[in-house]
Design goal:
CATH superfamily of the largest domain: FAD/NAD(P)-binding domain
CATH class of the largest domain: Alpha Beta
Helix content: 25-40%
Distance between the termini: 41 Å
Largest sheet: 10 strands, mixed
Bound molecules: flavin-adenine dinucleotide
CATH topology of the largest domain: FAD/NAD(P)-binding domain
Number of domains: 2
Oligomer: single chain
């Protein structure tokens, strides 16, 4: 069977693209690894927040909320999201940072409020009172069930006839007589439409296709888990500091924490940095009474940004049939519904769906052209 669309990359960007594109096209997805979603998409904290600095990224998050809260019938069972909340605390000198965060959250329509020290301690009792002056609480921040989301995108696409080919590293891309001819090992697949959803590798894939790169930069972020010291802590909000020196994300089975670093890295497999983990454990010990004797597990992943830190979704006038979905930074999971929907619209040359338009998003804001001419 000859597909209409070839997608390169089987992370959350490629899987959401497959889900929405397969509603009107025959899709084949090629993934280099032996399984889908083993790179960045397997290494996330699974947080949904709209307290994001990039304007378009924040709008894409807001546009994705309705999908998470009420996915299409039959998409998944049980719920994709659960309430969590997100608390950002600061000392007196951090007030301007908290003011900016509040303004962003309000713009995105979040349920948010300023909290004083007492409120902050009621929400996250492990905070040390002397380290908190005030904070911002985003009450409708949520936990995303990332495994369920990824499986559900794949299942929806498979039900529409999409094919997923793992252990298929794309090494050559040619445009021949109006079709893209893509080679991965012994396999060659052709289609009129090619979607580059290769995450940190998206500029390398663009290079193979002879299409301009986006100037993407990848940054490593480490994370680790440690046990809950009290059972009620599983219901506490995600907490971070205004200077973003660490975050702790309670989950039913334990805490996930991170030094929240952004260390430049080349695309590839990355591992947690011991020094960064030690710094985070140290800071968490100063700001809270949580004691991390030894992380139960640790890992790292890449967060990949376009130069303006907003996501890129669209095509190139000079390269018909080529589209990219990349630069999702630290928000690739939480923006994936809107990114998949936007991609499906631009591939068809249609208007963006109502939830994106209602968040003020335009095709031009997402398009790669904004980076080429800036
Ligand atoms: C510690 C950490 C915490 C995070 N927390 C959150 C969070 O709470 N919420 C959130 O929304 N986001 C979060 N993120 C960000 C999120 O993980 C990413 O934005 C997202 O996973 C990017 O998805 P992707 O599909 O673009 O990339 P990837 O998942 O990396 O997928 C790209 C795929 O392309 C494949 N590929 C590359 N080159 C080729 C080729 N030549 N041929 C075939 N296949 C190829 C790769 O093998 C890879 O599987 C976090 C990230 C990290 C590291």
């Amino acid at each position: 069977m000859t597909p209409d669309v070839i997608i390169i990359g089987g992370g959350v960007a490629g899987l959401s693209a497959a889900c929405f594109l397969s509603e009107f096209a025959q899709v084949t997805l090629l993934e280099r690894e032996p399984a889908l979603a083993t790179q960045s998409s397997a290494r996330t904290a699974g947080q949904f927040t709209t307290g994001i600095s990039g304007d378009t990224m924040r709008a894409m998050a807001a546009a994705s909320r309705s999908f998470f809260q009420a996915p299409p019938p039959g998409f998944c069972e049980p719920a994709l999201v659960a309430p969590r909340g997100c608390l950002t605390v600061g000392r007196e000198e951090h007030r301007p940072v908290l003011d900016r965060l509040m303004a962003r959250l309000q713009e995105a329509g979040a349920d948010c409020r300023f909290v004083d020290r007492q409120d902050a301690l009621a929400l996250f009792p492990a905070l040390r009172p002397e380290r908190v002056y005030s904070g911002v609480f985003e009450a409708d921040a949520m936990d995303i069930d990332v495994d369920l989301l990824l499986q559900s995108y794949r299942k929806a696409a498979s039900a529409n006839g999409a094919r997923f080919l793992c252990t298929s590293e794309v090494t050559s891309i040619q445009r021949i007589a109006g079709t893209w001819q893509v080679t991965a090992g012994d396999l060659t697949v052709s289609a009129p439409v090619l979607v580059n959803a290769a995450g940190a590798w998206a500029d390398r894939v663009a290079d193979l296709a002879g299409v301009p790169g986006l100037g993407l930069k990848a940054f490593r972020r480490s994370a680790f888990t440690f046990p809950l010291h009290r059972s009620e802590a599983g219901a506490w909000p995600h907490v971070t500091t205004a200077d973003y020196s660490w975050y702790v994300h309670p989950q039913p089975h334990g805490f996930t924490a991170s030094p929240a670093e952004a260390d430049a890295a080349d695309p590839g497999d990355v591992y947690a940095d011991d020094l960064r983990l030690a710094e985070a454990i140290h800071h968490i010990g100063i700001d809270t009474n949580l004691t991390v004797h030894r992380p139960s597990a640790n890992w790292a992943g890449l967060r990949t940004f376009a130069p303006d830190r907003n996501p890129v979704c669209g095509g190139f006038a000079d390269h018909p049939g080529y589209f990219v979905s990349a630069g999702q930074g630290g928000c690739g999971v939480l923006t994936s519904p809107a990114m998949g929907q936007a991609l499906a619209a631009v591939v068809q040359g249609a208007d963006l769906p109502g939830n994106l338009a209602a968040s003020g998003i335009t095709v031009e804001q997402l398009a790669p052209a904004r980076l080429m001419f800036s």
